[in-house]
Design a protein that fits this description.
seven-stranded mixed beta sheet
């Protein structure tokens, strides 16, 4: 199993980023996917969830209305579109799949600062 996140960077408050997580080594379309984030000195927290067929999504309250999770099962990729970014969104963002155990990507840094 391999998960590779990309798309992070430095953005001003109010800006947007789209994160990608490319998956390999398993049948991607069979598994729910999740995005987490970890700010410095804090625990890793769930941000967004998407079911295997993209029929269900869920978000932590702090990002509802600003973030959108999606997936392309033909490309084995899950996305996180982040709009109206705030300084408190600054964190390392990870994707995760659970297949009996949790598999994580290496993370991608998102910094929201003027």
């Amino acid at each position: 199993v391999q998960l590779v996140e990309s798309g992070g960077g430095l953005v001003q408050p109010g800006g947007s980023l789209r994160l990608s997580c490319a998956a390999s080594g398993f049948t991607f379309s069979n598994y729910d996917m999740r995005w987490y984030r970890q700010a410095p000195g804090k625990e890793r927290d769930l941000v967004a969830y998407i079911s295997s067929d993209a029929g269900r999504t869920n978000y932590v309250d702090s990002v509802k209305g600003r973030f959108t999770v999606s997936r392309d099962n033909a490309k084995n990729t899950v996305y996180l579109q982040m709009n109206s970014l705030k300084p408190e969104d600054t964190a390392v963002y990870y994707c995760k799949v659970f297949r009996g155990v949790s598999y994580w990507g290496q993370g991608t840094q998102v910094t929201v600062s003027s």
